Amino acid sequence: MPERTESESRKLLRRLRDSLAEPGAGQERLDRITHIIADSMGCEVCSIYLFRDEETLELCATEGLKEESVHKTRMRIGEGLVGRVARTLTPVNTANAPAEKGFRYMPETGEEIYSSFLGVPIQRVGEKLGVIVVQSKTAREFSVEEVDALEVVAMVLAEMTELGAFVGDGGAMAGLHKRPVMIRGATGQEGAAEGRVWLHEPRVVVTNPVADDPLTEIERIRAAVSELRVSVDDLLAAESLDKEQKQVLEAYRMFAHSRGWLRRMEEDITRGLSAEAAVEKEQSTARARLETVPDPYLRDRLHDLDDLSNRLLRILTGQGKDTGAEMPDHPILVARNIGPAELLDYGRKLKGVVLEEGSVGSHAAIVARALAIPLVIHADRITAEALNGDPILVDGDQGIVHLRPEDTVAVAFRDKVAMQAAAQNRYASLRDLPAEAKCGTRISLHMNAGLMADLPSLAGSGAEGVGLFRTELQFLIRAHVPKRSELAAIYSSVLDAAKGKRVAFRTLDIGSDKVLPYMKRVEEPNPAMGWRAIRVGLDKPGVMRMQLQALIRAANGRPLTVMFPFVAEVNEFRHARQMLMDEIARERALGHALPERLEIGAMLETPSLAYAPDAFFEMCDFVSIGGNDLKQFFFAADRENEAVRRRYDVLNSSFLRFVRHIVDRCAAAGTPLSFCGEDAGRPVEALCIAALGVRMLSMRPASVGPVKHLIRRVDLTELRALIDRECATGTANLRPTVMDWLAGQDI
């Protein structure tokens, strides 16, 4: 056949565009497309295979194969040559398909008479949509120009799919962004919410994938790239950048100034694509290439490429974050990731948050907890699957998201939410009653907080105080170090809102996954066990002293409770405590009001501190067990790793023995002990921790009612005896025994 020319490629795209503009159902359009492609490329066969689900491809339209095989021929991803294209997202071009490794013979299609095979992926920025195939009887490899032409056609099909051109009876493609999707992520914050998707960064929709005037499109892409380069250069010139930020922008600059990047987009334009479609085609091709690279550094450059391509698309289309769309009722934010300040800007309008990235200890998770909204993290590909306004269910308890749910799923979910709401109403009647067990033991229930927005929950939840106020949020949401006066005003407002109830201020806990935007990032192989929390405070005493001064001035003669996080050995606490006492002496010398009463405590989050000298426990005014970190270090199970974070149970006898050891150390020194973290808010776990002798628990406000409800129905003395007996007899996990004991009491 004649060699493909650029004009012929554009002619093919124009025929496709005109055909798609004609009326007709999805299947009819697909059938017309396969006929046009086969005719234009001089091939006997053109077939379109689309994904029915993540693992299965289906033959949805064909010109040349047996009609009865349409919607009946299916294969798994990786199976046969078509499956190989879908898995690798790279073309397969062979003159002798039956002899090719992995070839699968499908007798129902009648394809055995065709020797030549060319298959290219139909994809859009990481979305695998399907495979388009051309075949001929003549044994030959397709030319580079023909491969390029078919890739351009595949890009147009992907864009037209996004625009809904195949909605109707067009098989699998009709279901894109229409069918229900369940995504299993991880719990960032518990709770359940139903609402509508609100994309933090809306998808750029390319409405004109085919262009008639390549010269005009090339002028547009060159002008847009020039504007992009200027904006990146301007960002790099900013004096406030740290080393890491400069490295990221240098990577941006490298991409933006790449001659090959611009040249490849211009070549696609000459084949008939618009400037926007050329950007997305290059982005899709580069993503497919980088995703297979074993080097993690190079794979991380995917984010740089995506960000840069999206910037370029917004310049070309004028579709920025502010698209003019109205936020739907009951919005649930969907994003790849989001900073604390941006999340706070949305405020309490949001019903939930779903992120592709994030972590259980990240600032986004902290803000979600402060806003009391469910958060699911590690929701893979949610930004590609979701569209603004899509119905969505967020199950933060299970870490599951239902996008465009079926009616049966939605009804079951609403029943669950209704049951939770009814339970919360029952707990409200206990608000003013003490958490007193049948044996007369009283447990003090406190709440965790991190924002002023949390404080109204103090009265409504029935909490007796704030057992943990996270102070790092005031640092994370600013682009610069906050002033002492700003912090003092915030802390003073917190104490005002608490109305005399105890507030335990935890000093700055940064590092690990909580990195200040204006602080140089330290690259560490294991940041959770690295330079963080009190270690940063002691190494950066200026920031620590400034925060301590702000706390003292905020107290202004009222009681003040301060605790230092992540203390691993006694000298760290001794030094931090002395810094606070030095600031007290300094404020006294300045004639400022001193706290009426001062409590200085430590968070026990490392097993080493449980074996500190007696002097440590005698020096502390109180000790607070940080359950989240302590559990991960005790079991050597990274709480960010979904493969292991749920593997180990707080009701494991070894962990309960360890908590009992801490209780005994504190009791011997007469030091009050509390427990804060996720497990303090889980009723059964909280019950066992209280039975071991911990008399104060701190949790999210919504958990106070359920925990109090259970404590008031049991005898903690009996439960302690049960735990001691089971530990002595060698029971590995006490959960089944404890649940049987509760069931025996009709609980």
Q: What descriptive keywords fit this protein?
A:
Enzyme I, Chain A, domain 2; single chain; Beta-Lactamase; Glucose Oxidase, domain 1; 747 residues; elongated; alpha/beta; 8-stranded mixed beta sheet; disordered N terminus; 4 domains
Architecture overview:
- It is built from 26 helices and 23 strands.
- It has 4 domains: 6-175, GAF domain (Beta-Lactamase), CATH 3.30.450.40; 181-199 and 327-420, Phosphohistidine domain (Glucose Oxidase, domain 1, 3-Layer(bba) Sandwich), CATH 3.50.30; 214-317, Enzyme I, Chain A, domain 2 (Orthogonal Bundle); 440-744, TIM Barrel (Alpha-Beta Barrel), CATH 3.20.20.
- It is α/β, with parallel strands linked by helices.
- The strands form 3 sheets. It has an 8-stranded mixed β-sheet with strand order 7-14-13-9-10-11-12-8.
- Helices cover 44% and strands 17% of the residues.
Radius of gyration: 31 Å
Specify the structural class.
alpha/beta
Q: Determine the oligomeric state from the structure.
A: single chain
> According to CATH, what is the topology of the largest domain?
TIM Barrel
Overall mean pLDDT stands at: 84
Distance between the termini: 79 Å
The H-level CATH homologous superfamily of the largest domain, spelled out, is Phosphoenolpyruvate-binding domains
Cα shape: elongated
CATH architecture group name of the largest domain? Alpha-Beta Barrel
Low-confidence parts = 1-6, 169-175
Main pleated sheet? 8 strands, mixed
Strand content: 15-25%
Task: Give the count of structural domains.
Answer: 4
Tell me the number of helical segments per DSSP (H or I, 4 or more residues long). 26
